[in-house]
Amino acid sequence: MNRRFGTGGAPHMPPQTTVAGVMRDVLYALVPGILAHAWFFGPGVFFQILLAVAFALVFEALMLKVRRRSPAPF
Length: 74
Prior knowledge:
Elements: H1 19-41, H2 44-66
């Protein structure tokens, strides 16, 4: 009694997501929080976010250089 059943993804499961798609969703989710911070604390929040993003990109590029890897977009 050796039965084989076919396997496949469930029809109610969403399709596979990519890293770029997940990061886009994260950015969309950040927008209300950023706007609320700007409303309560003023427009200086945008400068802080810009500064944080710039430092993150610089340090990531630096670490990739230390590891002898080239920075590449998704």
